[in-house]
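Quick one: structure tokens for this chain, please?
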Amino acid sequence: MKTLIAGGTIVNEGRMFDGCVVIEHDCIEQIIEGIETPREHYDEIIDATGCFVLPGIIDDHVHFREPGLTDKADIQSESRAAAYGGVTSYFEMPNTIPQTTTQEALNEKFALAKEKSYVNYSFFYGATNDNYDTFEKLDKTRIPGVKLFMGSSTGNMLVDQYGSLLKIFKTAAELGIVIMAHCEDTDTINHNMEQMKKAYGDDPAVMLHPVIRSEEACYESSALAVHLAQTFGTRLHIAHVSTAKELELFPKNLENQDHPTLPTITAEACIAHLWFSSDDYLTKGALIKCNPAVKTADDRDALRKALNDGHITTVGTDHAPHLLSQKQGGCVKAASGMPMVQFSLVTMLELVDAGVLSMERLVELMCHNPARLFSIAQRGYIRKGYQADIAIVRRSEPWTVTENVIQSKCKWSPMMGHEYHWMVEHTFCNGQHIYNKGVFDATCRGKAITFQPMSL
């Protein structure tokens, strides 16, 4: 099978240029600069005139809820949503049932994904207070790293013993394993919740969520994680940074192709914290309740600035579906999390239009940097010999997010009612044309992502 993508503007490795991409079987065979179309025989020709051709998006942070929570979502439904959104690879989190804190549970997830996932996949191994001695048995070519919950969150996977944290960071450093940490200080959150309940009753209104899961709670926990990583030389990636203050903890890093190495301590921003602010609780309510909380407009604006100044290294979604019935109530009763994987790329493209970042920088944050940070083999770039994971997007006539548009199993999104001006037209995953202008090929299956062992 040989495919030609012709006439588009390729965005890759800091450049934007007219050209063609030739795909043979599952790999990129050739990248041809210029406006001329090569004259050969192709099984499929995609006219990308007026479109931008990007590497497939790598989402380093999703919750697909399988096994154990499949009333909310499952690997099949959410990987379908990913493909619709130009996301060709994902890393899924360990707070499922059972938790992914043993080799057996990890193997079960890989088996499920091999059968069900439409796009490429891997899974974080979950840290607990007492399983750090199992890290040495992990196959580092198979997983992106270890997920560490340094704050109460969905799934009751809190690691709250300081001695355990020391051993986790030390062991990960010795083995060359990335720790991806959820950082919120539980004691601070519990104190704030107690105060809010005294003042406002047993289920404080959702606009108090950023007061309970406060800037202080985030900063204290993130600062501790950074201190431990610096102490042991651990590769640390802090998930879903939500405050301006936390950005002070991370070194500025503006990548370039001559020196592509990333620092050992990095930060992720998520779509929710880049798009929404605490002002939006008035209209969105618990639909935008997530952990860490969406915070002030000043925090959101600082995170947007950090996309360009090097403080933020990757952009993910923290895609976390719940049933709509579970999103009712306030700070106690409403579940935290929202489904965003289908709309991450088009939302970031809206920020490009708003002048927040360039198209080239978007590709760095959502494609190149995840590949660099986690040492992904043969993905994240449009390069000869790499896996043909490609998203083709164009500016479009306005379209609105409705329930019928949403592919996630839960059938809602905080973006419902939003009018977009960008459209994902095509998604290729391992050379398979999985999404074609609204037509989905359900026969496609993704591959397990492989990782290159990191040097110690």
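DSSP finds eleven helices and 18 strands in the chain.
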